[in-house]
Amino acid sequence: MPPPAPTIDDGPPRVLLVGDSTLLAVETYNAVGGLTGFVADLEVASCRTLGIPSCGDPPVPPNAVDVISSAQGPYDIVVVMAGYDEWWTSFPESLREAGDAARSQGAETLLFLNFREGVGYVDPAGRTATEAFVRNNETLRSVEASGEIPELVVADWYGYTSGSQADEWLASDGIHLGLLGAYAVGDYISRWVAHLSGLACPEEPDLGVPCPSPDEAVDQP
C-alpha cells in the first residue's frame, strides 16, 4: 500500500471516477451524494471498456483510458470501475495504458475496483464472462504485487460484496447495482479515498485517521 497521497493545493482530494454500467448506477439513481469527502468528477457510460474500443450502439462511449487521458486534471486519485466488457486477452495492456494515463494526470493512485466472480453476466458478444473476470482479477493482483504500475491499488470490491447484505445491492446478473448498491459503492469508494489520502472517514470520523481500508473493516457485509 502506498503512503497517503498528498492532496492538490492541500484542499479536498480531487478524484476522477471512470466507470461502465456497473458504476453508472450512481448517476442513474441520483446517488452522487454518496461520494463524500472529496471533489468528484464522475464519468460513467454503459458498455465502456478499459482500453479497447467500447461496445454498444452509436454513439459508442470513449474507453476508460481515453477518458482519463483527456480529463481536465490534475487529479489526486483516479478510480476505475470498468472493463466488464473487455476480454482477458487485452486487459493487461489496457491496464498498463490506464496506469500511464493516470500518471499523466498527476495522480498518485490508480484505484481499481476488481471484478465480481462467479456471476451470471453475459457480455455483448454472448460470452459467459466469469472466466474473464477471474483472469482479470489475477492480472490486477499480480501487477499490484510486482509494482509494475506503482500507482495501482486494487480495491477488493468482489470480496466486499460477497456477504449476505450485498444481495440487496446487486442485480440478478451479479455485477450491476440497484438503488442500495449505488449508495453502497459510493460509500465504499469514499472510504477508500479517505484511507488513501490519510483522512478520517467522511461519515464516521471517530474511526480515526486515516480511515480504515473498507476491505479490512470488521463491519463490511
Structure description:
Helix 2 (64-70) runs parallel beside helix 3 (91-104). The mean pLDDT is 92. The chain is an alpha/beta fold and 221 residues long. It has 6 helices and 5 strands; from the N terminus they run βαβαβαβαβαα. It starts with 13 loop residues before the first strand and ends in a 24-residue tail after the last helix. It has a 5-stranded parallel sheet, with helices on both faces. Strand 4, helix 4 and strand 5 (152-155) form a beta-alpha-beta unit. The chain has helices spanning 25-28, 64-70, 91-104, 130-146, 157-160, 179-197, and strands spanning 14-19, 39-44, 77-81, 109-113, 152-155. The protein is globular, with a radius of gyration of 16 Å.
How is this fold's topology laid out?
Elements: E1 14-19, H1 25-28, E2 39-44, H2 64-70, E3 77-81, H3 91-104, E4 109-113, H4 130-146, E5 152-155, H5 157-160, H6 179-197
Parallel strand pairs: 1-2, 1-3, 3-4, 4-5
Helix pairs in contact: 2-3
Describe the structure in brief.
The protein is an alpha/beta fold.
Low-confidence stretches: none
- Mean model confidence by pLDDT: 92
Instruction: Note the quaternary state here.
Output: single chain
How far apart lie the N and C ends? 23 Å
Reported for the largest beta sheet, the result is: 5 strands, parallel
Tell me the total number of β-strands: 5
Fraction of helical residues: 25-40%
Strand content: 5-15%
Helix-and-strand structural type: alpha/beta
Rg (CA only): 16 Å
- The side-by-side strand order for the widest beta sheet comes to 2-1-3-4-5
Topology order in helix (H) and strand (E) letters: EHEHEHEHEHH
Give the helix tally. 6
User: What would the principal axes of the Cα set say about the shape?
Assistant: globular
